[in-house]
Amino acid sequence: MKGLTLNCMDRKSEAYELVRLGLKNDLKSHVCWHVYGLLYRSDREYREAIKCYRNALRIDPDNIEILRDLSLLQFLRSMPQDETVEGVPKSYNVDGKGRFIVAQMRDLTGFVETRQQLLTLKPNHRMNWIGFAVAHHLISNGAKAVEILEAYEGTLEDDYPPDNERCEHGEMLLYKISLLEECGFLERALEELHKKEPKIVDKLTYKEQEVSLLVKLGRMEEGANLYKALLAMNPDNYRYHEGLQKCCVLHSENGKYSSDETDQLDALYKSLAKEYTWSSTVKRIPLDFLQGDKFRDAAVNYIKPLLTKGVPSLFSDLSPLYDHPGKASLLTTDFPSPFELKQADIIEQLVLQLEHSVRNDGRYPERTEKEPPSTLLWILFFLAQHYDRRGQYDVALSKIDEAIQHTPTVIDLYSVKSRILKHAGDFSAAASLADEARCMDLADRYINSECVKRMLQADQVALAEKTAVLFTKDGDQHNNLHDMQCMWYELASGESYFRQGDLGWALKKFLAVEKHYADITEDQFDFHSYCLRKMTLRAYVEMLKFQDRLHSHAYFHKAAASAIRCYLKLYDSPLNSPAEEEDNTSKTPSQKKKMKKLRKAERAKKLCFISGGEEKNEESSASGNSKFGKRHIKPVDPDPHGEKLLKTEDPLAETSKYLKLLQKHSPDSLETHLLSFEANMRKQKILLAFQAVKQLLRLDAENPDSHRCLIKFFHKVESMPAPVTDAEKLVRSVLEAERPSISQLQNKTLSEANKVFLGKYEDSLMHRVAVAEMLNILDPARKLEAVKLIEDSSNKVMPTNGALGPVMEWKLKDCIAVHKLLDKVLIDQDAALRWKVRCAEYFPYSTYFEGSRSSAVHNSLNNLDINTTVNGGASYPGISGSENSVASNGKLEAFKNLTI
Amino acid sequence: MVCIRKATMDDLLAMQACNLLCLPENYQMKYYLYHILSWPQFLYVAEDYNGRIVGYVLAKMDEESNECHGHITSLAVLRTHRKLGLATKLMNAAQAAMEQVFEAEYVSLHVRKSNRAAFNLYTQTLGYKIHDVEAKYYADGEDAYDMRKQLKAKPSHQHGHHHHHHGGECCSGEGRNTQVTQTRGDSKTESKASMKLESKAV
Hints:
The complex is a heterodimer.
Chain A: H1 2-7, H2 12-25, H3 30-42, H4 46-59, H5 64-75, H6 80-84, H7 99-106, H8 108-121, H9 126-138, H10 142-154, H11 166-182, H12 186-195, H13 203-216, H14 220-233, H15 238-247, H16 259-275, H17 280-284, H18 292-309, H19 314-318, H20 320-323, H21 338-361, H22 374-389, H23 393-406, H24 411-424, H25 427-440, H26 445-457, H27 461-469, H28 487-499, H29 503-523, H30 527-534, H31 537-548, H32 554-572, H33 578-581, H34 589-622, H35 643-646, H36 651-665, H37 670-683, H38 686-700, H39 704-718, H40 726-738, H41 750-760, H42 765-778, H43 783-791, H44 812-825, H45 829-842, H46 855-862, H47 866-872, H48 877-880
Helix pairs in contact in A: 2-3, 3-4, 4-5, 4-7, 5-8, 8-9, 9-10, 10-11, 11-12, 11-13, 12-13, 13-14, 14-15, 18-21, 21-22, 22-23, 22-24, 23-24, 24-25, 25-26, 26-27, 26-28, 28-29, 28-32, 29-32, 32-36, 32-37, 36-37, 37-38, 37-39, 38-39, 39-41, 39-42, 41-42, 42-43, 42-44, 44-45
Chain B: E1 3-6, H1 12-22, H2 29-38, E2 44-47, E3 53-62, E4 69-77, H3 86-102, E5 106-112, H4 116-125, E6 129-134, E7 144-150, H5 187-195
Parallel strand pairs in B: 4-5
Antiparallel strand pairs in B: 1-2, 2-3, 3-4, 5-7, 6-7
């Protein structure tokens, strides 16, 4: 039997067969059952695995090995596999009704039992004590866990630990003290901490634990002193700063301080600044609470030396001051408070003054010593980002161009210029500038990554991959981006495929990201017993909690939401190649043909990549399991292009598993419920759609999308035929009972509710557009009125004190959405065209609107078919050498001599 | 400016993303988990004012050899956050923990021969010396310098010992370009060996 497990490394089906054969011969063999369980486990079929272990234990109840394996599975918390892996085991009823579902999801009680059994069997193993204690901690019985640990300590000699176990023992003590803290036994925790000090090796954690307890006990003065001691070791740790402020009762979560508090904080930081003269952290923090002239003085003192030094991140460091709601942000519904506006304005004024002084005089105002020439460069660099942030792209570009002229060799300037162009709406110019930057230092992966990102934003997927691959060769493997879990890349390329209508590839990428999260969940397995040995218990318990919330991470959210969007699109246009037809309206038929060809070529190329990858796998399977961890050798991907994904019978059903995960892990995201609404409306699941509407209203009833869903929903309900079946009647009665509780609809028809909403937000473009769209849905005869409502919106000048030119309210992204709505939903080509012309004025750099300063226009002037060329460029000059890298300056000249 | 603090579990995904943006040597999440679950004291991150992770250090104890020493697995700082001395601060924090908690005698690291900026940081600012050259250490065939820095040897069992102070020299003379370092993808064999993943005797 033993040989069989090895077999499962490469030949799974055979292994299963042999084990089953073994079981046929001897159904009473616990070894066979155990092996069977291990096979299932390795395939992540945890339910089946637990069943097998249980069967094995029925035959040999005290088998330590099997108990341990069982305990590991019982522990597996949060199981995305349950929802995501296809082919979930069919039968659960070997040992009783759904019990296993509980076991896998989180059978912590079962885990405690198993752990107890293990301890009873082998009480002389340290690990068994610790495991039992951790089990109790996990079922929120911290006090019991402490008891167990103390009982364990009771079994130790006085001179324990020996030298080679000091670290482990110290960790155990710190774990116990953190448990006491968690249980609220603060005095006891502190006492224990002091008593065990000599045995706690990790002195930094010791101090951090001590200060945490002191603060919780209200011993603020001691706390403050200890925080000061910690700051002496690391004055750049913001947690210590926060702690110190809290001890001085000066910390504010929302950043609002009374003037008295401000003065005290000011005094505190003045004294800290004397102590830590070299620390810029101590100078930065006061900018968060100072106001008016004091803010100004502190800001100048902070900014000047950093400009002289040329710190590229200075703007990003100050940008949170622009960030608070209503600050320099241009949201239409926010009323910028005068105080908050001032911070960004003050910064603008003072940097402009520095610019003036350095430009004319070569020095800062009221200084005698001259600044080096680079100071002007970094001032311009700062101002470019400042105006970019304010949406004044032409000013931003003129500043950055001046900086580039000043010193053409500084790579960061090109990166920033590329970012400005992206914000201004010219993705291809942004990509070509990023490529220019990349070519200036081919050994720097960061600028390579940035360039790849820009290329993907410009939908140059093939080129992006070629560029990324320059850094991802791993032996014979052409591209290890997937193996290395490079999620930003997979997401960005998935988004690009989605924009281009290539749903198969898009899904492939999004599901790849989802798979990484499943793998990370799986990763925890090997650490269960490892950590009990290593005694890194605090980190271990943190890891378990982390795994529980893993799927709330932004990358996962994005991947799941995008995958759902793909399936919805697939459902809405289930043509064979819905892709090609979408979003290409602006392209000529010949361009479309080219696109198709290119895509084919791209696919063929991918095929090569993938088969290349397989070869490598064949080879490495010889060297067997030396691969990191126990990740299996990848089986051949039966669907490398996502074509099978496209052929799913029921795209709506596919959305369910991702929706469930989003609802569980991102319940406070509007997007979650918008998607749930869209999916359930299509599925005719009226009550589920209604739930989504209620969630949207709970989260943000004023959001235009929430309004849309509310109106759409009740419009649908009103237009449903009279209920016939009991179920339908039930649904109807539930909705009738619920409707009066929705304040937006009280005593109003939907049209009236729509009108009220408009009245509330007449000045906001996106609210008007939502109202217009609903107007058209409620009564298609009023389409012209809807279009007029949109066209009558006015783009106002923002109330800022900007010294250089006005800032307009509307966002490019919103205006593009409006254009698409006019074009595709309201289907009024004339209005769409008028909108485009109007927006080209507002956004002269936008390629979408073909603004006069965008590369779209330059291209057509130069008669260059850039987009298609770039997408399929078979030879790419920038990669082999940098002959084209100089001075393309965003006008895409670098691609002039490209050939297909 | 930029916060230097111990890494938490929630930082690991951002550390991995930072690594993938900056460096050619990359690791799967499991390898990061392996580090933080083995030596939680050694992982530090640099977090900017917007809460973004802009740098990190990933380090370990080498338990295979008989001399007790630390090893810097990976160190990276985003290009956009140079000139702040972040790499120096991160390294000092990790080294201090190695010395204090594990009484490491020295700390080692690998650096590409061609990476002058990193090499300068290690030799001039941080006091590392070339110990050896490992031919074709990296996947693309480039050689690595095997570098070492001696830590203060100290008597075992100290009471009330104070944590190593590393604030003072942080900002001095940092390298121009601290986008740096390290160990190639040898994670595979390495952690397999040291983790002894559940040896199963069936």
